[in-house]
What we know:
The structure is a homodimer of 364-residue chains. By secondary structure, chain A is of the alpha+beta class. Chain A has helices spanning 20-31, 62-70, 84-91, 100-107, 109-118, 132-141, 166-169, 172-175, 231-247, 285-288, 293-301, 328-333; strands spanning 12-16, 35-39, 53-55, 74-77, 126-129, 146-150, 160-163, 181-185, 189-199, 205-207, 211-216, 219-225, 252-261, 268-275, 313-321, 337-341, 352-361. In chain A, the strands form 3 sheets. In chain A, strands 9, 10, 11, 12, 13, 14, 15, 16 and 17 form a 9-stranded antiparallel beta sheet that branches. The first copy, chain A, has a 4-stranded parallel beta sheet with strand order 3-2-1-4, with helices on both faces. In chain A, helix 1 (20-31) packs across helix 11. The first copy, chain A, is globular and about 60 Å long. Chain A starts with 11 loop residues before the first strand and ends with a strand. The A-B interface holds A 9-10, 23, 26-27, 30-33, 35, 49-52, 287, 290-291, 299, 304-305, 307-308, 310, 312-313, 325, 328-329, 332-333, 335-336, 338-343, 345, 354, 359, 361 and B 9-10, 23, 26-27, 30-33, 35, 49-52, 287, 290-291, 299, 304-305, 307-308, 310, 312-313, 325, 328-329, 332-333, 335-336, 338-343, 345, 354, 359, 361.
Amino acid sequence: MSTPVRLRPGDTIGILGGGQLGRMMALAGASLGLKSHIFCPDPDSPAFEVADAYTVAPYEDVAALDVFASQCQAITYEFENVPGPTAAHLDARCPVRPGVRALEVSQDRMWEKEFLRGAGVDIADFARIDSDGDLEAALAAFDGQGVLKTRRFGYDGKGQVMIRQASDARGALATLKHAPAVLERLIGFEREVSVIVSRDVDGNVSAYDLAENVHEHHILKTSTVPASVSGETAERARRMAEQIAASLDYVGVMGVEMFLCGSGADERLLVNEIAPRVHNSGHWTQDACLTSQFEQHMRAVAGWQLGSTERHSDVVMENLIGDECERWPQILAEPNARLHLYGKAEARPGRKMGHVNRITSKRG
Amino acid sequence: MSTPVRLRPGDTIGILGGGQLGRMMALAGASLGLKSHIFCPDPDSPAFEVADAYTVAPYEDVAALDVFASQCQAITYEFENVPGPTAAHLDARCPVRPGVRALEVSQDRMWEKEFLRGAGVDIADFARIDSDGDLEAALAAFDGQGVLKTRRFGYDGKGQVMIRQASDARGALATLKHAPAVLERLIGFEREVSVIVSRDVDGNVSAYDLAENVHEHHILKTSTVPASVSGETAERARRMAEQIAASLDYVGVMGVEMFLCGSGADERLLVNEIAPRVHNSGHWTQDACLTSQFEQHMRAVAGWQLGSTERHSDVVMENLIGDECERWPQILAEPNARLHLYGKAEARPGRKMGHVNRITSKRG
């Protein structure tokens, strides 16, 4: 193994994607004296406003990628659907962190599940679905119920069909335009939790406290920390996340979503999916921890030591979706709230416009 | 009184000066969805890297100022020596906050002292010095000792002569190139403390906890919060700072430096000077409070409500001066430290390159 590239203050981290995650990464990097160069095809990217440099070009524009790579000392991304050839092309010129393998695994639900099973963490039963015959067989094995999901490009509930009875199955694959899919066994999960885990170039791993997440219309609405789970469950969640990061030889921050099934002594965690990037359910770290997930990610990408993931306060993060951002004056008036707005011009329905962290003293 | 201008997220705050203070204001504004436009004659200004727009021009370039004002919804500054005509010219086009009066008062030590005395806060005895005769008379009145300071453009100990005996007085005015000066009575002060106070456009005032400051070579080295003073003294300091802000009809964050003389029941505070801007001795707020002084300032300048000045942790801020910034890897390794670097290329002696906030749980 070669010596990993380590940046110095004043160096530039390239970021693929110019949305709110890229923006908050750039802001966190700037606090550490790191410059950011945002690469995004959208000329109105909110991250451009806070970056030292930006490039507007398609992810397939090889000439633009070459210039970009030549101006950065390390490259990261804010979304997992970075085209594989783009990542590989860049990685040959400048270290791409978390890395090409993390992208590959998380871009395909089937590979992701196979990887997770191989990493030794618990996941829901699943089956590969390429045809109606596959679907029929899998449903028979899963008690007639399941969630059918496209293998690629699904997010915020898009590319999914819930199958609760035989009639739901008819036409399900057609709804997904016969894209390669996966059927997941339907689990009576109680709650959704997530862990933000970080790993540095030397293999040190550190996870933040478990967050309990509530979704509305398939979009994250709140993350509450601490989650109401037993200490053992919280510790198990952290260990699973650390195990996943280590198995991927990961560098940076990763979001690991889990389902919490059963209760009491039967409390059980199943990993749902991983996101090889900073994660919406980790925004609470900005105001409840000394090191935010964004700073942590930039440290790791720079080849630096991780910061402490300790939490100094209890917190509830609430996403501001669509015109909810118009509540900003009321939020500014709340003494324990910290407002974060993303600088997006248009508040379209379902669009993440900002979030608020509400902080209280740590219990116990 | 006319209705004050209030900004909306997406609006632009202009910042005169592109150093670390402007940079940290821009970063704090970005978290709230505010854009920044930096105006600075120095083409290598560290604030440019994180701002949406910047202008490189002298502060006397009226055409550049006009374009700048037309692109901003409010304007602020990071240093108190903004030329008066520049501030007045801009203020006629776009609200300048904290305001022209705060600049005038803080640019001239003599006016500042007269203002402070008028505001009803305690300050050391002082005398206006325009000639050797003035100096002789004042020294006679102040027991033969004092600090002679130029009225304008002094900072970090520059423009000062300490007079402890008659021989020190000879040539003192010549050392200051016969600039108009002020003699301050030498006080046996024990310690230096400061308060960061904020005031919004509606007149609401809120001060942060008192910080205890240690200087080295006339440059701030550390700020410790809480300061080791009685609760009464801390409260009196806060009240004095709030009184000063109100007297100036101030909008924004202001640093108020004070001397702490005597001890126990004789503990006494004398205001030393005010800085009409975010202040180095307030950097601790970034990691020990929900609202940093930078966010607080941007809120006030935007015409928004102030945030809570409550402190969730104890903290010691240490400035990284000159090549001390080379200790960044060690600082990153400290679990309770948060590093801030300013993105300055060259670590010249005496230059502020960054700072570190070391956080511990709040006592009591």
